[in-house]
Amino acid sequence: MGLSKGADMKILLLIVLLLLPFPGKGATLQIDNQSRYITIIIDKKSTSPCLSSSAHAPLCLVLPLTQQTVELPVTEIIEGTLRFIAHPSADDSLDALRKHTFKSAATFTYQPVGPLKYEQLSCSTPLKEGIKVRLVLQDFTDITCEAAMDRQTFWVYKHNDLHLKLIITDSPPSSRPAR
């Protein structure tokens, strides 16, 4: 017993709709910089470079003791690295800042489209640089890098609406390097 032509079309349309990305907002990346000493540079691949055209900090900088939330679009693959630097002076250009980034870093990949939809995140603290990097993927994982030689990686297949939170804190003063 076969289906009617109209039923076949409805099933085909339903399959196509399930493969398309859902409209609306995707996941979010929330950066909570609780450090008093560290500024974060958000380097995202496949986007325009981070530029400052005013006296305000560019959107790709998260200054000490501030927060920033970035909406991740439903139809775009985003890869980024979060780099840490000692709090810059007001006169430092972004090129000057990038020359002095710490070895510690965090990365994220958000892939909401295509056959594999996933979130991947990692952190590393190869040296004692006085910071703790914590990554929280809502309802899935909470990983922290803080000691010398820490490296954590986590990824999960997902829908388009999970939220990633990056929290940077200062290590206790006894473990911070002298600068």
Question: Could you explain how this protein is built, in words?
Answer:
By secondary structure, the protein is mostly beta strands. The protein is 11% helix and 41% strand.
Question: What's the short story on this structure?
Answer:
The protein is mainly beta and 179 residues long. The protein has helices spanning 5-19, 94-98; strands at 28-33, 38-44, 61-62, 66-71, 78-86, 105-111, 118-125, 131-137, 141-145, 150-157, 163-170.
Key features of this structure:
about 180 residues, mainly beta, Thaumatin, six-stranded antiparallel sheet, five-stranded mixed sheet, 2 helices, elongated
Helix content: 10-25%
Sketch the major β-sheet. Answer: 6 strands, antiparallel
Q: Per the principal axes of the C-alpha atoms, what is the gross shape?
A: elongated
The spatial strand order of the largest sheet comes to 3-2-5-6-7-10
Strand content: 35-45%
What's the average pLDDT?
Answer: 77
Q: Number of helical runs? A: 2
Give the strand tally. 11
CATH topology: Thaumatin
Per-chain topology:
Elements: H1 5-19, E1 28-33, E2 38-44, E3 61-62, E4 66-71, E5 78-86, H2 94-98, E6 105-111, E7 118-125, E8 131-137, E9 141-145, E10 150-157, E11 163-170
Parallel strand pairs: 1-11
Antiparallel strand pairs: 1-4, 2-3, 2-5, 5-6, 6-7, 7-10, 8-9, 8-11
